[in-house]
Amino acid sequence: MPHYSDAHGTADNNGQRLARLRMRRRWTQQRLATETGYSLSSVKAFEQGRRALDRPAVILPLCRALDCHPTEITGGPVVPPQSDQEGQDAVAGVAAVRRAILRHGRPARPTEQEALEVDLQGLRRRTAEANSQRASAAFSKSSQNLPALLRDLQVAAEICEGDERRTAFALLTSAYECAMQYLYKLGHVSDATLATERVVWSAQETGDPLRMLAAHWYDAGEFLSIGEHDEAGAIIDSALSDLAAVKSPGPEAVSLLGAFELKASLNYARAADGKAAEQHWKRAGKTADRLGEDRNDFQLQFGPTNFAIWGVSLPVEMGRGRLAVERAEKVKLPAEYSPERRSHHFIDVGRAHFYNGQREEALGAFLEAERLAPQATRMHSGVRETVGTMIRTQKRGQLAEFGIRLGVV
C-alpha cells in the first residue's frame, strides 16, 4: 500500500515537530506552556502525540510563541511513494506550475507561432476544464494541463488589447486560482501563497470591481492561515463595506457578499471568538436565503448548501464536536456538488466525531472522504494528524490500514 511521507522523507507527527521546534529554542516544556498559556500537561500531550494538533486555533498560539510558520508544525508537502502512480502523477506538475507563477509579470516573449495561436474562446474552455478538474480533485489532470494553460494565458494577456486584454486577464486570474488550490491541496503552501499574490495582481488588470473583490477573499485567507486576524479582518471588512454599497446588486454581488460573511465567521472562529463567528454565519444564512440558489461565481461556492456546510466546519474549527455533528445530520449535499467539496465536508464530519470520542464514526467519515477524493484526503494535514492520534491509542483493523495509506504509521 502507498506510504506517504513529508518533504524530508519522514512520517513524523505534529507533536514530534513541535518538540524539535521547542528544543531548537532551548525551551523547556514548562517555558512553552508559560509562553502559550497552555498547561504543562497539554504541552506534554501534544508532543507525545496523545492530543491532536489538528486545528489552527490550537496550533497558531504555538507558532506565535515559537516564531514559526504553521507548516513547520503540520509538516508538508506530502511526498507520495513510487508505488502510488496516481500520487506521483498528481505532484509531477508542481515544478512547472511554480515556474509559470514565478514568470508572472515578466515579458512572455512569445514565439511567432504562440502569438498566432492565441484563441480566447479556446482558452476560456481550457480554463473551465482546469477548474472542473480541480473541483473533482483530479490532481493528476491538473498537473498535466495547468503549466501549458498558464503559459498560454500569460501570452494572451501580453499581446491582447482592449476588452480582449481584460478577458485574458480574467481567465488568467481564474487559472492562478486553480493553480493556488492545486498547490495548496498538495501541501506546497509557500507556492500557493505566491499564486494568491498573482491572483490579486491579475484581477486588478481586469477592471472588474467584483473580480477584484473576489481575489481579496483569497488574500484574506493568507493572513488568516498564519493567525494575522486583524489583517484578515481588515480585508474582509473592507470588502463587506464595498459590497454593501453596491446599488441593486445582482446574484454575483450577493453571492460574493455571502462568501465574505463566511470568511469573516472563519476568521473569528480561529480567533476563538465564537459569538462573532456565529453572528457572521447567521448573516451568511440570510444572504443565502436572499440568493435562493447555489452559485459558483469566481469559483467561490455560495448558497444554501454552502451555508449549511460551513455550519459544520465552523464548530469543528472551535473544537465543538457535538454541535458540528448535530448540524451535519441536517446537511443534504446535492448530487452535483463537487467531489472535492463533498470530501472536505466528510473530513470535517470525521474530525467532529473524533472530538466527541466517536472513533468508529470518525473513521467511517474519513474513509468516505477518501473514496470521493483519495489524494486530497490523504494529503490533508488535519486528517493525517487526527488519524495518527487515533492510531497511537487504537491501532487495529481498518484504522491501521488507513494510517498506512496516509503514511502516519
Quick structural overview:
This protein has 409 residues and is mainly α.
Instruction: Supply the number of helical segments.
Output: 23
Helix content: over 70%
Shape: globular
Order of helices and strands: HHHHHHHHHHHHHHHHHHHHHHH
Number of strands: 0
Largest sheet: none
Radius of gyration: 21 Å
Proportion of residues in extended strands = under 5%
Q: Termini, distance in Å?
A: 12 Å
Structural class: mainly alpha
pLDDT < 50 stretches: none
Instruction: Give the overall pLDDT as a whole number.
Output: 92
Describe this structure in words.
It is a single chain. By secondary structure, the protein is mainly alpha-helical. Among the domains are: 78 residues, lambda repressor-like DNA-binding domains (434 Repressor (Amino-terminal Domain), Orthogonal Bundle), CATH 1.10.260; 129 residues, no CATH class. It is 71% helix and 0% strand. The chain is globular, with a radius of gyration of 21 Å. It starts with 13 loop residues before the first helix and ends with a helix. The model has no long low-confidence stretch (mean pLDDT 92).
Key features?
409 residues, mainly alpha, 434 Repressor (Amino-terminal Domain)
What topology emerges from the helices and strands here?
Blueprint: H1 14-24, H2 29-36, H3 40-47, H4 56-66, H5 71-74, H6 85-91, H7 94-102, H8 112-116, H9 120-135, H10 139-159, H11 162-185, H12 189-204, H13 209-225, H14 229-244, H15 251-270, H16 274-291, H17 304-317, H18 321-328, H19 339-355, H20 359-372, H21 374-378, H22 381-393, H23 397-406
Helix pairs in contact: 2-3, 6-10, 7-10, 9-10, 9-11, 10-11, 11-12, 12-13, 13-14, 13-15, 14-15, 15-16, 15-17, 16-17, 17-18, 17-19, 18-19, 19-20, 19-22, 22-23
